[in-house]
Amino acid sequence: MPPSLHRSDLSSHGALQRCNAVSVLPPARGPEARIRSEAPRPLSAKSRHAARCVLLISRPLRAVWRQCIIPTRSGALSRSRGKEGPVARLFLEALFTSLRDDLQVLKKDLSVDMREVRCYLEDIGNRVSAVEVCEARQDEEVQWAHQEVLHLQEQHIEIQAQAEDLENQSQKNYVHIREVLTHAEESDLREYIGALFQYIVGVTKDINLKPDRVHRVDPPRPEEAPLADMLTCAHDFQMKENILHKARDAHRVRFQDHIPVSYQDLSAITLQRH
User: Which terminal residue of the chain, N or C, has fewer Cβ atoms less than 10 Å from its own Cβ?
Assistant: First the structure.
């Protein structure tokens, strides 16, 4: 049996030590001896991995090797040249056949696994593509919604301005009067406001300046605070303008021991802005 196939060489520790050490070679002379005397080079990672694989495969076949060797009568193993050659050859053939079959099965299993992994990766790639497409679509929808919000804000500002103009236009004949006495009955408020307008404008009682409508803006106050705000609607726009013009010129008009304040009634939005 060759030294490379000796059972003592098949041990994991001894074989790895021999793989990493300098190979046993016949003595050399000249330059070759100088080269061999240098420090041994360690094996590469692939070579060490291959050696470990061979050792792992050879371990379960030791029993087959022991069965192939013919025992003698004394129980010792026979290692004669005539019996060792065919047995070793049969052992190697069985080993190579087993390795070839195992490699074929391993190759088939690896092919199946690689196909499954490839299908799995393709599925992941398709899902990632679908997610990217959905994300791009959502980004477009968000941008479109943002543009719509800006457009709606502009429309809201325009509509609010139009509503403010319409409200102010509907109140163009309104005069807001603050600090008005409320002792009079509701039916006498028009007479009271008409007399106040005549006093502000400075006309005689023959000219009728009674407003068309009069109502309180705030709820009635208690008797100790009889002043309230009144909202009046003049008969026409020119009458309202004359009353406010005279009230601004007089600044503070005293009427029946109190000083009412008259000003143009505007919408709440206009008052808040100004």
Answer: C
